[in-house]
Amino acid sequence: MRFRSLNADAYTFFRGTADLYYDWCRENAADWLHREDARLLLHGDVHYGNIGVYRTADSTDFVRFGVVDLDEAFEGPFELDVLRGVASLRVAAAARRIELDEARQTELARRFCAAYAAALRGNLDAATLAERHPAVRALMNKVHDADQRTFARRYLRDGEPPRFAPVRRKKKQPVDILDPAPPATRAALTDALREAIGSMTPASRRLLANDRAMDVRDAARWTRLGSSGSQGVGKYLVLTGGLLRHNAAPMLFEFKEQPRPAAERAGLIRAGPDRGRDVAAAHAALQGPPHWFVSHANLDGRSYLVRPKDPWSEEPDWQDLRGVGDLLAAADLVGETLGHAHRHALVASKFATHPERVAGLAEAGVDEFVRRAAAFEAHLARCFEEFRADPAAQHLALRANEWIARIASPTP
Asked: Pseudo-torsion of CA 164, 167, 171, 175, nearest 10°?
């Protein structure tokens, strides 16, 4: 399934190969890696699809926009996040056949760094992102009237009792495959969900109804066909009865295995022993305010991130980038969103790094970000060409397509 995803296009290949990026950085960004004066908690996988709206526990600020998907978070020099953000937009432009001459490449990096620095300094209010960015406003409008019960039904078969459908389709195409969990796995997931709820923050726990016992109705191993970076890790969906204080609709909880981050696999860092706990903490550090429920649990000796799958989580679609103007607007948005996340992490962290210093370094380093982003983009393009020319890789992608066709067939 991973090889199938990586075969789609250069941008999807970029999203699913964070290891390639950090392996390249080990050799080509050693000067940044050895600095100690501009370190902070990084997102680790910055790109246009890893920002979005999410529900919070704040009743006055129900939905916010910020960084999402923090599986690769780690402590390091800020430049690694900024470079990955700039490089991601260049790769997206190439995949969308948007021409960027040398002047446009510099403008892209300059816009990204300027927005990043302004947010770091606190000159841009994170709560008013929708006023400045039409893409944010569109996502806010999309989730404004979302309904949990209607959302949950998309994953369920018709009839009672409620059970997961084996295949979820969108526009008649399969997008999710849900394989029923064996009884022992379902029991373990039930225990793990209780553990995760016990680790919730007090603000999140106040949203739950105290008089409702946890009612696990179904569990399934989950394959999300549109993902790339998380293909190959253990993922489950758990269906429960309503647990929220003001909403009795069924709820879906996602369990996502948390392996070692790509930066560790590339030899840049050494992460903590419980990756799920660290990733849950990264949400609290980099999102302000954080998602209403992000927790962690252990299942069969492996660490998992646990969070609801709900209708209030949406990310922008990179295929909406249709021209240079869209790309520059995306640079403003991703840069600003990353700057808000880094400022939030620095203000309440153990790091001595000051936001003003990081902002100044980002603005002064535009030319260097342009140079290194171009070098990495060329490296990635060569890797993608080699991947597509590899018969073994293409054979595995074909096997995945055959499996999907067999599972999604209306007749056994």
From this structure: 100
Average of pLDDT values for 96-105? Answer: 97
Q: Given this model, what pLDDT does residue 37 score?
A: 85
DSSP state of 164: B
Checking if the pLDDT of 230 tops 90, the result is no
Which residues, other chains included, contact 211 with Cβ-Cβ below 8 Å and sequence gap of 6+?
none
Question: Which position has the token pair 């908690």?
Answer: 41
From the number of C-beta atoms within 10 Å of its C-beta (0-12, 13-18, 19+), residue 166 rates as middle
Burial class (CB in 10 A: 0-12, 13-18, 19+), 104: middle
Q: What are phi and psi of 194, to 5 degrees?
A: -60, -40
Q: What's at 121, amino acid-wise?
A: R
pTM value is: 0.96
Q: Which two tokens stand for residue 116?
A: 């990043």
**In whole angstroms, what is the distance from residue 318 CA to residue 92 CA?**
7
pLDDT value at 395 more than 70: yes
Range of lowest pLDDT (245-249, 334-338, 344-348, 362-366): 245-249
Least Cα distance to 373 among 72, 121, 36, 113 occurs for 113
Non-local (6+) Cβ contacts of 250 within 8 A are 148, 149, 152, 156, 162, 217, 239, 240, 241, 242
Measured CA to CA, the distance from residue 82 to residue 335 in angstroms comes to 8
Would you say residue 292 has pLDDT above 60? Answer: yes
Handedness of CA 267, 272, 277, 282 (dihedral sign): negative
